[in-house]
Amino acid sequence: MATIEFRGINKKFGDETIIPEMNLKIDDGEFVALLGPSGCGKSTTLFMLAGIYLPTDGELLFDGARVNEVEARDRNVGIVFQSYALYPHMTVAKNIAFPLRFKKTPEAEINRRVKEAAELVRVGELLERRPEQLSGGQQQRVALARALVKDPALLLLDEPLSNLDATLRLAMRTEIKALQERLKVTTVLVTHDQIEATTMADRIVCMHAGKIEQIGTPDDLYKRPATRFVAEFVGSPPINTFQGAAADGVVELGGARLAISGGANGPVYVGLRPEHLFFADGGIPAKIVQHEPMGREILYVCDTPLGMVRILEAAATASQSIGSETHFGFDSAHSLVFESASENLIGNARVSAIESGS
Amino acid sequence: MGAVKEEAVVRSNVRKAMKARERANMAIFFGPAFLIVSFFFVVPVIVDIAISFTDLGRELRITEITTKNYDRAFTGDRQLPGVIARTVFYVGATLLIFNTTFGLVLALATTAIPKTSGTFFRAVWLLPRMSPSVVYAILWIWSIHGGDTSLVNQILKNLFGSEKPIDLIQLEPMWVIIFANGFIGASFAMIILTSAIRSIPEHLYHAARCDGAGSLAVTWHITLAHLRWPLTYIFIWQTLSLLTSFEYILLITGGGPFRATTVYAIFIFQRAFGSAGQYAYGAALAFFLIVPGVILALLLWRVSKMGTLLQKPRIEVQ
Predict the structure, then answer these.
(1) Closest Cα of chain A to B16: distance in Å?
(2) Range A4-229: architecture per CATH
(3) Which of A46, A47, A80, A87 should be substituted to probe chain B, the one whose Cβ sees the most B Cβ atoms within 10 Å?
(4) Are B211 and A73 a contacting pair at CB < 8 A?
(5) How far is A329 from chain B (nearest CA, A)?
(6) Which residues of chain A lie closer than 8 angstroms to B218, CB-CB?
(7) CA proximity to B186, closest of B254, B265, B93
(8) Is A89–B203 a contact, with Cβ atoms under 8 angstroms apart?
(9) Cys-Cys link to B212, which of A73, A120, A320, B136 (CB 3.0-4.6 A)?
(10) Is B201 an interface residue toward A (CB < 8 Å)?
C-alpha cells in the first residue's frame, strides 16, 4: 500500500516534451484511472510509476520518499500490460512465481503464494499450462496473479481490458474492481475507454496532450467537465458543442437567441448532451438525417440551423422518421457554457429558453 | 435434355482444364527445386556410392567391384583415427567458441548499444563473409606468416619489443584455422540471433524488470530463453557446415604442417585428388560424411519445427 505523488513531473523523449508538468496525489488504497486519447501521455505516466521510464524533471514520491532513481525491480510495483506480457516459455505457475524468485522467497512459500494468487483470480486449475494454451481472458487473469503475487505497494493496469471481447470485458471490469476493493491496493489504470474508467475508478484523471484536464469522480467529469475537451471526451454519444458570441448574457446560435444565466460576454461554446435534447412542437427546427437504434435508446442525427445535432431519445422504437422535419428543445439545467479562448467551463453559466427564433 | 447433356460436357471440360492447370502449376512450383536437388545432391550421392564400391584410381579404369575401400577405412588406414580426432576438435572448438558463443555475444552486444553503432559493428563482422575466400586467406597469411613483416610480428616487434618473429602457422596451426573459420562463422549466428532478439516483444523486458529481474536475469530468462530454437538451429547447421569446411584450411595451411590441420574434408580431398589419386577410396570416405549430414538435416527439420512453418497457402492455386 502506498500514497503516490507527482510533484512537477516533466518527461521528455529527446527534444519532444510528452508531459510538461504534472502534479497529482493518489491516496493509499485509491483506484485512479488515467483517461485520455492515445498519445496524451497516460502510458508514459504509468511507465514512470513502474520505473521503466525515468522522469526528466520533478519529483516522484512513494509514501513521501523520492523514487525517481529507484529501479523498476526495487519499487514493488505489480503491472498488467495490454498484451499481458506473459513469459511464453514458462508455465502459468512459473509465470506467477517469477516475481518471487528474485525476493529470495523459500520454495515452499513460493508454492503457497502462487496457489493463493492463482485461486484469487480463478486460474488454479491452469497452473501447468503454457500461455499459448490459454484464452485471452485466462491470460489476463494470470497476468493479474503475477502482478499481485508479491503484494505490490502499487498495482498498475495498462489498458488491461482492451484485448478482450465485449462480454468478457464487462465481467473482468467487475472482477478487477471487486478484487481491488478487497485487497485495498493502490491502483492506477490507464485507459482510453471512458466506460472502463467511470465504472472502475474512484477518481479519474482526464489527460490531454500531456496535461491533466481534470481530476474528479466519474460524476464530476460527466456533469461538471472543467474544460470543453473533457466534455467532449467523456460521454457517449458525445456532447453537442456550438460556437457562439455572447453579448450582455445572450448568445445567438443559428438564429436562435439563448439567454445565459450568470452572464457572459465574448465568444463561448455551448455544450448540450444528446440526452438533454428532446423533440418538441416549438423550438429550434430540425430535419432528421439519420437514426441509430441503440437498444433502449435511439440516437438521431439532425440537420439544424446550429449545425449537425445529436439527440438521444429514451424509446425502443423511433418516433421520428428519416427526412421528417420537426423542432427540438433542451433541458437548460444541464447546459454547459465554456469560454472560447481558454475552453474552460464558465462557472454557473447556463443557457436557457429560446428568446426568439428567426 | 440436349441442353443438360451439353452442360455436363462443358462442366467435364472445365474440370479437365483445371486438372491440367493444377499439374502444370505443380511442375512450375516444384520443378526447379526438384531438378536442383536431383542433379546436385541425389545424383552425386549415387555416383559417389557407386564409385566407392570400385577400384577407380588415377588411371580412370574400373577393374573390379569391391568393398575393399570400406575395409580399408574401418581397419587399414592408420591416419584416419588422427583425422577424426582433429575434426572433432576443430568442429567442436569453432562451433562452441565462435559460431555459437561469439555470435551470441555479438548479437547481444550489438542490439544493446545504439542502433547506428550496432549496425556498424555488425557490418564490420560481416566483412570476412563477404570477402572472396582467396583474398580472406591471403590476408590471414599476411597477418600471421613467420617473416618479420607479418602483422603479428610487426605488432610484437613495435609494441612489445620482441626481436624474434614467430610463425603461428607452425606454432598453433589448429587455432589458426579455428580463428579463420570462426571469424566467418560468427556472423551467421550474429545475423540470425540479432533478428531473433529484435522479435522479442519489449513488454516482456518491461515485465521482467518490474518483476524484479536485474540485467543478467533478464538476459537469461527473457533473451536466452527466446533464443533456444535459433541457437539449436545454428548449432546443427554450423556443425554440418564445419564438417565439410575445406577451402580456408586448404588455402591457409593446406592441411599442414605435418597433417596438423588435416581434418576430414581435407583428408578426403588429399586421398582422392592428392598424389595418391585414390578416387574410389575418397568416395568411400565421403560417403561417411553424407550419412551424418542427412541425419543432422532430418534432426534440423524436427527441432526447427519446419513442418509447422509449412502452412496451407492463403490463396488457392488452381
Answers:
(1) 44
(2) 3-Layer(aba) Sandwich (3.40)
(3) A87
(4) yes
(5) 51
(6) none
(7) B93
(8) no
(9) A73
(10) yes
Residues of A in contact with B212 (CB under 8 A): 73-74, 99, 101-103, 150
Cβ–Cβ gap A52/B206 under 8 Å: yes
CA B292 from centre of chain: 13
What string of pLDDT tens digits covers the 358 residues of chain A? Answer: 689 999 999 999 989 999 999 999 999 999 999 999 988 999 999 999 999 999 999 999 999 999 999 988 889 999 999 889 999 989 999 999 999 988 888 899 999 999 989 988 888 899 999 998 998 889 989 999 999 998 899 999 999 888 888 888 888 889 889 989 988 999 999 999 998 999 999 999 999 999 999 999 999 999 999 999 999 999 888 999 988 888 888 888 777 788 888 777 888 999 999 999 999 888 888 999 998 988 889 999 999 888 899 999 988 788 888 999 999 888 888 889 998 888 888 876 777 766 544 4
Q: Which residue has the cell 464558465?
A: A346
**Chain A, nearest residue to B217 by Cα:** A102
Q: B80-261 falls under which CATH superfamily?
A: MetI-like (1.10.3720.10)
Helices (H), A149-285: 166-183, 194-200, 218-223, 228-233
Integer Cα distance of B92 and B95 in angstroms: 5
Q: Which CATH number fits domain A237-354: 2.40.50.140, 3.40.190.170, 2.60.120.10, 3.40.1000.10?
A: 2.40.50.140
